[in-house]
From TrEMBL:
PANTHER family: F-BOX DOMAIN-CONTAINING PROTEIN-RELATED, LEUCINE RICH REPEAT FAMILY PROTEIN. It comes from the Eukaryota. This is RNI-like protein. The lineage of its organism: Eukaryota, Fungi, Fungi incertae sedis, Chytridiomycota, Chytridiomycota incertae sedis.
């Protein structure tokens, strides 16, 4: 590994856990790589699985330069999520974690939630399409009540439903650090929207809220949401059904 390299992109290189283990060992010594991308955008999978995630977690406990880690679409389950989460409890440099499209489920979300209660540097967490339901969303929401570093949360394409949205809304009554929240395609309907709408007048953190592709949201709920943002001074972008920003400057 080149000691002068700052960005290492291994997208679609068909890496397995064995390959990632060697990479992780090298990262324990490397002091220049700040961004690591091990994911898929085309047809060739990286398939590091839980073993690869555990190897990376070991590296994260020793490496103090990596600030961004993308491991989406890598067949990481709850054991891998736990390993990464445990490492981030003490890691002080990683500010972005993309673990989307890995089947970590609600148990994995709980591990991430436990981490967020203790981590003080992670700013962006992408857990889209991870099989997270209301209970998993509630664990992350519970962590948001204590966390003061996370600014971007992408939970889209998880069936968290109204119960999950309500849990997040409750957390946002005390959390004013989070400013980007992506909840599109999450099975939210009127009750979830109303819960979020009710906290917006007093929340001075959220600047971007995306609720698109939740087709059960009624016109009445949209109107209620629009009414609630009239007294909000920080929200700049709000999307519910289409690409039109509902926030009028």
């Amino acid at each position: 590994m080149d000691e002068g390299e700052t960005r290492l992109d291994l997208d679609s290189n068909e890496l397995d856990s064995f390959d990632v283990s060697y990479l992780a060992e090298a990262l324990t010594q490397n002091k220049t790589v700040t961004e690591l991308f091990i994911h898929i955008t085309l047809l060739q999978d990286n398939n590091m699985g839980d073993e690869g995630a555990r190897a990376l977690a070991t590296a994260l406990k020793k490496n103090n330069t990596i600030s961004s880690l993308w491991i989406n679409k890598n067949d990481v389950h709850v054991r891998g999520a736990k390993a990464i989460s445990d490492a981030l409890v003490t890691n002080t440099t990683l500010i972005e974690l993309n673990i989307r499209e890995n089947p970590i489920g609600d148990a994995g979300a709980q591990e991430l939630g436990n981490m967020l209660k203790q981590n003080e540097c992670l700013q962006t967490l992408r857990v889209a399409a991870c099989g997270i339901h209301a209970s998993g969303a509630a664990k992350i929401a519970d962590a948001l009540r204590e966390n003061r570093s996370l600014t971007h949360l992408a939970l889209y394409s998880n069936p968290i439903g109204n119960e999950g949205a309500m849990a997040i809304a409750k957390a946002l009554t005390v959390n004013h650090t989070l400013d980007h929240l992506r909840l599109y395609e999450t099975n939210i309907s009127d009750d979830g929207v109303i819960a979020l709408a009710n906290i917006l007048p007093a929340n001075n953190g959220i600047r971007y809220l995306n609720l698109m592709k939740n087709d059960s949201i009624s016109d009445l709920a949209v109107s209620y949401l629009q009414g609630s943002i009239k007294s909000n001074k920080t929200l700049r972008e709000l999307y519910v059904r289409g690409s039109t920003n509902l926030v009028v400057e």
